Amino acid sequence: MENLIAPLIAAPLLGAAVLLCGGRRLDKAGHWIGTALAVASFVLGAVLFAGLLGRGAEDRTLVQHLFSWIPVEGFQADVAFRLDQLSMTFVLLITGVGSLIHVYSIGYMEHDERRRRFFGYLNLFLAAMLILVLADNYLLLYLGWEGVGLASYLLIGFWQHKPSAATAAKKAFLVNRVGDMGLSIAIMLMFTTFGTFAFTPVLGSVGETGEGTLTAIALMLLLAACGKSAQVPLQSWLGDAMEGPTPVSALIHAATMVTAGVYLIVRSGAIFNAAPDAQLVVTVVGAVTLIFGAIVGCAKDDIKKALAGSTMSQIGYMVLAAGLGPIGYAVAIMHLVTHGFFKAGLFLGAGSVMHGMNDEVDMRRYGGLRKYMPVTFVTFGLGYLAIIGFPGLSGFFSKDLIIESAFAKGGVQGWILGTVTLVGAGITAFYMTRVMLMTFFGEERWRNLPAASPDAPDVEPAADHGGVPHPHESPKVMTVPMIVLAFGSVFAGAFFGIGERFVHWLEPVTAYEHGHPPVSALTVTAATVTVMVIGVGLAWLQYGRRPVPVVAPRGSLLTRAARRDLLQDDFNHVVLVRGGEHLTRSLVYVDHTLVDGVVNGTAAGVGGLSSRMRRLQNGFARSYAVSMFGGTALLVAATLLMRAV
Amino acid sequence: MSASAVHGLWTDLAAPAAEPIARIQAPTIEYAQLSPVLIVIGAAVLGILVEAFVPRRARHYTQLFVAGVALAAGFAAVVALSVSGYATTEAGIAAEGALAVDGPALFLQGVILLVGLVALFTFAERRLDPAAHGNRVDSFAAQAASVPGSDGEKAAVKAGFTTTEVFPLLMFAVGGMMVFPAANDLLTLFIALEVFSLPLYLLCALARRRRLLSQEAAVKYFLLGAFASAFTLFGIALLYGYAGSVSYARIAQVVEGTVKEVSPALAGTMGNDVLLLLGAALVTMGLLFKVGAVPFHMWTPDVYQGAPTPVTGFMASATKVAAFGALLRLLYVVLPGLRWDWRPVMWAVAAVTMVIGAIVAITQTDIKRLLAYSSIAHAGFILAGVIAAKPEGISSVLFYLAAYSFVTVGAFAVVTLVRDAGGEATHLSKWAGLGRRSPLVAAVFAVFLLAFAGIPLTSGFAGKFAVFKAAAEGGAAPLVVVGVLSSAVAAFFYIRVIVLMFFSEPTPEGPTVAVPSPLTTTAIAVGAAVTVVLGVAPQYFLDLATSAGTFVR
């Protein structure tokens, strides 16, 4: 059965190769080929899943050794895949959500003349992401890691004619490089420490290694995770990444790729378990990002950027949970899966709204759209209820478990983390309600937009694509994936959560300890629901009861800062860009004066010596003879001298 | 000799023989083992007879045929001897101790024969110069004896004379060079030195164009060569005084102290170390002159520039092979017991040679002078291998010589192609943009330059690597550092020529690349092929050099 793993990856890889090399003759059929291969991959994944279910819980690890990648004495790396419960979960999420988004993109990208290329990139992403989660060693994982980075770069900058998209792609790539350096250093450390890259020997011999080394490896892995999963301090690229087409935002920058960091931490759980200091850092990063993303999400008027802030915040939850150790790993993955459903659904909903609104993204120019887009409204609404943790829906189960686990950490840390997660849940309810109200309720602000005037240069002209928009429901090819995802948003949490089905499924891989919070689970749940209701209420007070101005008010200091992503870019600019410029300038100075000086000086010195010595060659045979005579005398003298000493 | 003995000599002669004269012991000559040398010298003599008896019209092709066949036959004989084991198990001394037939001798003779054959092709090239009065002309003066610019010269040109004597001269030089590394006593060494030097002096003077420069070069070469020969001869005399013999084996034995009996006539001097050191230094100096090591190098640029380019190519490659062969034999067979005396001195010579050769080459503006200084630097690199005083030193030098000689002969063959109205355009400024107009010629020349610079995948890299490796293992690591730094400096001026050829704008009235006959084409192709093959797959030839790397004594 393990022989099916390679075809699972090969299908989208083949799709990418065919679509990207096939040229224009595939323009008509390209999207169908890409979608078919994604679905094929999903079907293979489902078959493998059925196979795994047919085995005993401890027997659900399949390894397929394909070939020896780098067969060097003392440096062995294989192309080998490992399918266990953890990677199986990811395979189903990636191929399942991936297939739905392929279908959705058929409609969304219908008018784009580079649609074939878009599907090629999507398939490339699927293949790379599958390699990432199925790799049996860190080196192969790194290949997938870089592969998804490449696909992400290509897709963010897909509309490369827009300077903002090109810049965003570059920014994402550069920020990710920082994280990738962390991963490569971690892998090098692993190699010098353990002499191998493969999961089983590395994670199995953690006990024989000093804590210092393990902490170093764990922190480097965390750096990698921060880059890929947009955690503070490497979070700045995710907001700009929304320049990519919306299906990309849904698939890569919400459901799958950005969660790769969580996968990495959970996969390397053995290392983190043995490095408590690193675990603490992980929880801190998660907690900070959770609040950071939520605050940013509250202030953004761009629907996709608001959702991006939310993504950042939700991944913060996952990272925080992963930092809790065995009580949190399975919970983190569970939230990851439910988040994959509802966040992908929300993004597709946002895409559907934009599709009907002439690609307008500013929520202040929406309003009252529920009448015009009923399907989008319902699916988006179900996703909304799921993310705020409405009792019974997906997010309720998974987020509640995280909050419980955070409290269960124990001691002061447990209280702090628990409180942060609770507050985060409240803010989540606030900003998501804000999105919901501004988009689907209230007055239809898009009807009477102010014309662009020199007095208000901030206001963009409404007519990007001509005139007042005519909101309309999207075609079936787009709504059906949204409906499917909405089902997931509603039922996945209950399916996973009741009877702890999901955590027991993952238990053989991640181990699981049921956390015991200092207060009863019921109290935590009650608090969560209360906080959620407060958040919704506050949002309704501000955005439901009062009309929403089309032009954003100046806002408080915090709002203004949050609109600028809490000054992350300003910080990066001042500290890193300016600092880097100063550093390079001084290096250039050193290079020009010192290095070039030495090089040019040497060259000039040799040249000068050359012209001086040339003069000895004066053309007179007598001078030559004297030189020979003198040379002979020296030769003789030196020989005699050597004998004498 | 006592007085009575002298008296007896006279009386014996005066009186009729009372008893039959004891039969003169005829020397045993191993003709088969000497056949390569005999074939070449025989062909040289035959070439003189051709000059005397064959009509002028037919001489060119007759000479080319005789010389070509003789060089090929000589090479075949070398191969046959090597295959029969004379390079390894059967190696021995021939001709009453005058010549060694062993691995290094046969290897170097083979290289000299092949280089000689390639050089012969460039000698015989008659399509590069425009025809004079309807007669095809080669690179050599119409009539060597006519005064440059005189009426006699014009008449000779008009009559279509060519100096076909260059072929027998070349053959004599090749013959002498073949004996040189095989010489097993000091007198044979000296005779061989003169046998190949004298034809070279003459050949240098024979340029068809720029004859005054050519004659000046020849005179300088002759004067300085004679000067060096005198030192060599003096050294030989001192060594004879030291050992009572000119035989290499005998001198080595005396140096080692295994021979104690003192010939009565030399009782006063024999075993005197001062004589040994002086003699060794002077003979070594003569050989260093021939290889062009600093400070005996000053003839090199003037002579290389003035001599007809085919002669320069031959001289730069084959002379170096022969002289380094002789130097190796002298240092490894005769003077190994003196190693601790000559090694430091040779270190210094090698280091100075590399550095000065590389540095002075930087400011050269004439391609032939540039290659002359490059050959000086290369002499330094080879010396580094010679100094290793290990078996690897011998084999690495053998390989380097084989690689270097083909690069050199090929590079000078390319120089003969680039011409303007005044003949060869050797000034570097005229080579600007050559790659645009004649990409193939420029590319081949670039390959040769890269090989000189020692860039990987050319024979120059393999050779330099082998030599430096041997030197480092022989304990001369500082010398290797100097060598690598000099290589870096040298790379500058080689690459500069490549840059000049490919990345500079061509000059409006730049030179043209003449279309050569198949002769020069073959010469260049062989040079390039050997350069690339020895660079890409050097192992077979390194093994060959290693198996040939043992001197017989």
TrEMBL record, chain A:
Keywords noted in UniProt: Membrane, Transmembrane, Transmembrane helix
Transmembrane stretches, start-end: 6-23, 32-53, 86-106, 118-135, 181-203, 209-227, 248-266, 278-299, 306-327, 375-394, 414-437, 480-499, 519-541, 621-642
Domain NADH:quinone oxidoreductase/Mrp antiporter transmembrane: 135-421
Positions of the NADH-Ubiquinone oxidoreductase (complex I) chain 5 N-terminal domain: 69-119
Region listing for Disordered, in residue ranges: 452-471
Matches recorded under NCBIfam families: NDH_I_L (TIGR01974), PRK06590.1 (NF005141)
Name this polypeptide is given: NADH-quinone oxidoreductase subunit L
Source organism per UniProt: Streptomyces chilikensis
Lineage, top ranks: Bacteria, Bacillati, Actinomycetota, Actinomycetes, Kitasatosporales
UniProtKB/TrEMBL annotation, chain B:
Keyword entries, A-Z: Cell membrane, Membrane, NAD, Quinone, Translocase, Transmembrane, Transmembrane helix, Transport
The UniProt record lists the keyword Cell membrane: yes
Organism: Streptomyces chilikensis
Entry's family note: Belongs to the complex I subunit 2 family.
Subunit structure, interactors included: NDH-1 is composed of 14 different subunits. Subunits NuoA, H, J, K, L, M, N constitute the membrane sector of the complex.
Highest taxon above the source species: Bacteria
Main location: membrane
Residue ranges constituting the NADH:quinone oxidoreductase/Mrp antiporter transmembrane domain according to the UniProt record: 183-488
Job of this protein: NDH-1 shuttles electrons from NADH, via FMN and iron-sulfur (Fe-S) centers, to quinones in the respiratory chain. The immediate electron acceptor for the enzyme in this species is believed to be a menaquinone. Couples the redox reaction to proton translocation (for every two electrons transferred, four hydrogen ions are translocated across the cytoplasmic membrane), and thus conserves the redox energy in a proton gradient.
Listed EC numbers: 7.1.1.-
InterPro entries in the record: NADH-Q_OxRdtase_suN/2, ND/Mrp_TM
Protein's gene: nuoN
Name of the protein described by the UniProt record: NADH-quinone oxidoreductase subunit N
Positions of transmembrane segments: 34-53, 65-86, 106-124, 166-183, 189-207, 219-243, 274-299, 311-332, 344-363, 370-391, 397-418, 439-459, 479-503, 515-537
Reactions that this protein is recorded to catalyse: a quinone + NADH + 5 H(+)(in) = a quinol + NAD(+) + 4 H(+)(out)
Enzyme class: translocase
Membrane topology according to the record: Multi-pass membrane protein
Location within or outside the cell: Cell membrane; Endomembrane system; Membrane
